[in-house]
Amino acid sequence: MRYSYIFAGLGVLVGLIGASSVWWTISLSSGALIVVSGLDASPVVWSLAGLAVAAYGASVTLRGVARRVTQGLGALASLGGAYAVVYASAEPISSALSTITDATGISGAGARELVNAVTVSGSHWVSITGFILFAVGGILGSLTRSASGGSSRYERRARSASLEDSVATWDEMSGGGDPTER
After folding, report:
1. The whole model's pTM is what?
2. CATH code that applies to domain 3-149
3. What angle, rounded to 10 degrees, do the helices at 124-143 and 43-61 form?
4. Which of 25, 62, 90, 174 suits a disulfide with 67, CB 3.0-4.6 Å?
5. 74: burial class by Cβ within 10 Å (0-12, 13-18, 19+)?
6. What is the pLDDT of residue 1?
7. Is residue 94 within 8 Å of 111, Cβ to Cβ?
């Protein structure tokens, strides 16, 4: 098994654990607690994660340069996702504004004023680690050649056949010979 697959698989597993965990808890002046999980923190993060996984899935079906390019794109999307998590964690209140508005009916600057404290759990680092592992898998995959980099046995056979061989095969068939008995 190639290392790129191992890193990508670990990245997805670790990323799913990080996405489902609580990243921060926001306490409001009313005493209400707003829990923000990784899935709720930023839509950009999970859009980039979806793009990275789609690029990886496409790279499994491709060969050669196309496979390397899609794995490189998946690595770039993963690094962008890690950056988006860092950006979202720099301002956790912004990631919870819509939830605060849903809970209180107050939006914008008024919703920010309702926040008493923010407790960061540190679980967003798990998601960053998942993105980085996935990016390492994409980088390794884009730099290494595929084990099936050569042509298939059917392509080799078709390329090696000459015009004289095909004419001889047709002549044999015209004479009643079976070309599958070669």
Report:
1. 0.74
2. 1.20.140
3. 30
4. 62
5. buried
6. 41
7. no
